[in-house]
Design a protein that fits this description.
about 325 residues; alpha/beta; Rossmann fold; UDP-galactose 4-epimerase, domain 1; six-stranded parallel sheet; three-stranded mixed sheet; 10 helices; about 15% strand; binds NADPH dihydro-nicotinamide-adenine-dinucleotide phosphate; binds ligand F7E; GDP-L-fucose synthase
Amino acid sequence: MAATTGSEMKSGSFMSEKSAKIFVAGHRGLVGSAIVRKLQDQGFTNLVLRTHSELDLTSQSDVESFFATEKPVYVILAAAKVGGIHANNTYPADFISVNLQIQTNVIHSAYTHGVKKLLFLGSSCIYPKFAPQPIPESALLTGPLEPTNEWYAIAKIAGIKMCQAYRLQHQWDAISGMPTNLYGPNDNFHPENSHVLPALMRRFHEAKANNADEVVVWGSGSPLREFLHVDDLADACVFLMGRYSGFEHVNVGSGIEVTIKELAELVKEVVGFEGKLVWDCTKPDGTPRKLMDNSKLASLGWTPKISMKDGLSQTYEWYLENVVQKKQ
Ligand SMILES: NC(=O)C1=CN([C@@H]2O[C@H](COP(=O)(O)OP(=O)(O)OC[C@H]3O[C@@H](n4cnc5c(N)ncnc54)[C@H](OP(=O)(O)O)[C@@H]3O)[C@@H](O)[C@H]2O)C=CC1
Ligand SMILES: C[C@H]1O[C@H](OP(=O)(O)OP(=O)(O)OC[C@H]2O[C@@H](n3cnc4c(=O)[nH]c(N)nc43)[C@H](O)[C@@H]2O)[C@@H](O)[C@@H](O)C1=O
């Protein structure tokens, strides 16, 4: 069989089909909600959305009936079991099984029911723990994974491979984007299960409100992480839907890399906490560094716009208005 991988870049019709039915899976999450805002800003009028309780994407029969009935033309898959280092490390069975089920059901039913194009979202944790930095797309499957999130990473790698397999066998336009660590409105601010940025924002906020002297931060503070505002990611997703039809997944990063210690100092300043930091070295550091090589996406014509300073202030304002004030 000839390997039909699709053109690396073509100007698809997506951007001109403003009334085409688009299923954004996971539309109430950090990423899905940002994608909905971006699509609406760009004039897309026919979004089909389902909450988790309306459609459980782990149910193959429910997903199948949904696609048979709704017949979306485009799909953006931003529904997944997601969490930070502690959640990934504590619930490995959930992270591998739920993600494999959601993505397998959605990708297969989307193909079967004639969806024109699908975007699958993975994560920078798909790359080997000691990948070359910045990490090019070609580093996939070249070495062992970071143990704290290998179960989630294996599911995400399977998602990329499923898109590639359907492209090869059926010439179907399924693409994959690999975002770096994200933050922004509608993030998960759970004290243990969230990612580092929302976890610290909440912890500093609560410490300030309670006049605490210190805040505990996990690990050694030395790991490096790259952060991208979710509105930039959403912009990149719409860009990829309109402009990319290649076989290989595409990294989506910011190039903005800080140590966890620097991040803690930045969040502390934005929140206005004046006490000290205490490091809990019983907690895992995870991968030492995972900076994406963004040159592929940049060469297609996309670059991020939101600075970390603006992104952090905007996210803290959102947190105050939408989490803190709603609790009062
Ligand atoms: N956050 C980050 O830093 C990063 C995220 N990503 C990727 O982006 C995508 C979205 O992540 P993010 O927005 O952060 O995650 P969130 O947890 O914020 O949102 C996930 C969404 O998926 C929905 N969902 C989960 N399970 C099911 C299910 N069984 N049936 C239906 N819906 C379900 C959730 O609904 P409900 O809340 O009702 O359960 C929620 O709306 C994921 O693929 C993730 O891997 C990639 C890199 C970094
Ligand atoms: C996006 C990516 O996110 C996950 O990987 P991660 O980047 O390691 O995730 P994280 O944000 O939880 O931690 C980043 C760093 O920060 C430190 N850290 C300090 N203090 C807190 C803290 O309070 N909470 C958390 N969560 N981490 C803390 C923590 O010890 C670590 O060194 C994947 O599992 C997977 O979900 C994935 O793909």
